[in-house]
Design brief:
The chain has 270 residues and is of the alpha/beta class. The protein has helices spanning 2-14, 88-101, 160-172, 193-201, 212-220, 245-269; strands spanning 22-26, 38-44, 62-68, 71-77, 105-114, 124-132, 177-184, 206-208, 225-234. The protein contains 6 helices and 9 strands. It starts with a helix and ends with a helix. It holds the Pfam family PNP_UDP_1.
Length: 270
Amino acid sequence: MIKQIKESTDFLISRGFAAPEVGIILGTGLGKLIEEIEIEAEVSYNHIPYFPTATVEFHKGKLIYGSLEGKKVVVMQGRFHLYEGYTLQDVTYPVRVMKHLGIQKLLVSNAAGSINLNFKKGEIMLIEDHLNLLGGSPLAFYGVEHLGERFVDMSQPYDPVMNKALEEASKKNNITLHKGVYASVLGPQLETKAEYRYLKIIGADAVGMSTVPEVIVANHLKIPVSAVSVITDEGDPDNLEPVNIQDIIAMAEKAEPNMISLFREVIKDL
C-alpha cells in the first residue's frame, strides 16, 4: 500500500495538488462548499492511480484543490462506502493520500438520521464520539504497522480544539449545533423500527453509513479531525414514516449553508 499511496500522491502533485493544509470530506447532498473555493486543480477519482470510483449517483467523484479562507484545501466531492462493495481499506485510502499530500487537519461531513428526537431535520450535530457498527476496522490488515501504530488510542477520536472552534463558530453565526454520538452502520437499507430502538439503547444520537472509518484512519495517522452530521430524517420508531433518498438529499441541501458557514469559520482560524 505504501507504494500505491506514493504513486497516487505523485500523480496529484503533478496535477497541481501542492501542500494542502486542510482536508475536507463532503457527505451526501453536501457538495456546494466547492462553490466557495478558489479552485486551482481538480481530478476525477477514476483518473487517480489506485483510487476507488464513486458508484453512488449523487456523489460527484472528484478531488478538488484550491484556496478557502486563505488556506490551501483538498476536498473530496463524494466519498466511498462499504455498501458500494468496497473494503474498509478502499474507503479510507483517500485519507492516507491526503496525509501524504500534507494535510494537517481533517473536516468531515455526513447526512444522518436522528435517534435523539430533540434533534430535528435541518439541524447539525457535532460528533463527540462514535459507535462503529460496520463489522470491521480499516486498520485490520497485514502490514498496517508500517503506516502507523497498530493499536490506536480512541479515547478522544475527535479533536477537542477543532470541536471547540466549531461550537464557537455556531454561536457566532446563530446556528443550532447539537453534540452527540454518531453510529455508523453498513446500509444501504435504512433502519427498521427495532433498529432505531436498539441504537437509542446503546447510546447513539444519530445514525449514518460513513465517517467512522475515515476518522479511525485519521487517528491512525495522527491527523486532528472533526466531523458534523446534517440531520436529514428523524428515526422515531413510534411514528416512523417512509423516507426516500431524494428527501434526504433535499434536506441536506437545505441545511448545507449552515455547515458551510461553520467550516469556513473554522478553516479561517486554523
